[in-house]
């Protein structure tokens, strides 16, 4: 298996693999152009899927881009970071405040494995009509359900059920 195949399968992989490094460089170049030109067509080239009426404010950062699928009417405010070593799926009309970070990449708990430079990734899913407040962070393998709300500055360590509002570090359900 290639490093990319291991990465996509959720297995340990070497992020310094030349194919993966080239893919990250491609994304970096497209993002630089997008930041300077603000041409939405560049996002269509970068992302695996981008729905109609979706907006992504610059600056924006991602690792690969091709592992990101954005539904229709999604809005991602400035300074969002999507570490898309595993798929990131964002549903229709989801709103992401400034500085929202979605981290699919993670590392082994065993320090010997970390010293080898190995990592793995877990997918993230954000449901239709979800709202992630500014500065919130979603950790690897977490899903935020449809119409859920994540309070600004929250760190989401566990799945958020549909329609639930969470806040804090770690994020926990709060009243309406």
| Annotated CATH topology | UDP N-Acetylglucosamine Acyltransferase, domain 1
Categorize the overall geometry: globular
The sequence of SSEs as H and E is HEHHEEEEEEEEEEHEEEEEEEEE
Distance between the termini: 48 Å
Low-confidence stretches: none
Write down the CATH class. Answer: Mainly Beta
Structural class: alpha/beta
Number of strands: 20
Binned, the helix content reads 10-25%
CATH fourth-tier homologous superfamily = Hexapeptide repeat proteins
Query: Which CATH architecture would you pick?
Result: 3 Solenoid
**How would a crystallographer describe the biggest sheet?**
7 strands, mixed
Question: What's the helix and strand layout?
Answer:
Layout: H1 3-8, E1 13-14, H2 18-37, H3 41-46, E2 49-50, E3 55-56, E4 60-62, E5 68-70, E6 75-76, E7 80-83, E8 88-90, E9 95-96, E10 101-103, E11 105-106, H4 111-115, E12 118-121, E13 124-126, E14 131-132, E15 137-138, E16 143-144, E17 149-150, E18 155-156, E19 165-167, E20 172-173
Parallel strand pairs: 2-5, 3-6, 4-7, 5-8, 6-9, 7-10, 8-13, 9-14, 10-15, 13-16, 14-17, 15-18, 17-19
Antiparallel strand pairs: 1-12, 11-12, 19-20
